[in-house]
């Protein structure tokens, strides 16, 4: 099996590790997470240190790295890890849980996480660095930009367009042909019937733009940290 290092040992990291194991393609040699003590065990895998270790691991022959830090409205930490991995020369594979169902013609970049029970319909195009979280359904012809997160249980109907760095909160529905432009956040449980412009915070049923979405704001603290 190919040797791989996981960057991020939090809750999302545990989901990613579980899916990596389900695919039986990679041997996980350790976790890099500067926020945890060296030697901490996460899902049975040892934390080796921070991502400063990446160049040394690459020299030792570990050439696969996975972005396993989650994003709740701010994709910047994932983007930074992506750029660091690319800078050192790592290959960043897509991690697709074995329970996900993908149409034969789905296209995607690299570094995406496709979680348990996700369904991707015909002709779906996915960028790079996205999270399609547990049980999300992405219908035919939908296009999703880089570093966007579709949270658990959301449904994107046919031919939806989603820009880059978007967060779609859990349990949301976006009806067919709607466009959500870049850098916007859709709150949990929203019903998106009309286009959402860029850099907007929108929520509700039907979803309304309620303000500017500021990526620097820590939305993970809203209504309890996930
Ligand atoms: C595996 C995982 O766990 S992945 C992570 C999944 N979790 C998420 O995606 C969380 C998504 N976050 C949300 O939905 C948040 O509520 C946000 C980001 C939309 C809003 O957060 P904040 O701006 O901090 O709003 P705040 O919590 O202060 O609420 C402000 C008002 O908006 C309302 N509101 C907030 N979110 C929503 C929503 N999703 N739908 C309807 N109303 C909402 C609140 O009830 C409140 O109304 P009030 O003033 O009448 O009491």
UniProtKB/TrEMBL annotation:
CDD domains reported for this sequence: LbH_AT_putative
Taxonomic source organism: Lacrimispora algidixylanolytica
Name of the protein: Serine acetyltransferase
Domain PglD N-terminal: residue ranges: 3-85
Annotated binding of acetyl-CoA, by residue: 149
List of residues binding substrate: 73
Matches recorded under PROSITE patterns: HEXAPEP_TRANSFERASES
InterPro entries: AcTrfase_PglD-like (IPR020019), Hexapep (IPR001451), Hexapep_transf_CS (IPR018357), PglD_N (IPR041561), Trans_hexapeptide_repeat (IPR050179), Trimer_LpxA-like_sf (IPR011004)
Membrane spanning residue stretches: none
Entry keyword annotation includes Chaperone: no
Domain of life: Bacteria
Name of one Pfam family that matches: Hexapep
Gene Ontology molecular function: transferase activity
UniProt entry keywords in alphabetical sequence: Repeat, Transferase
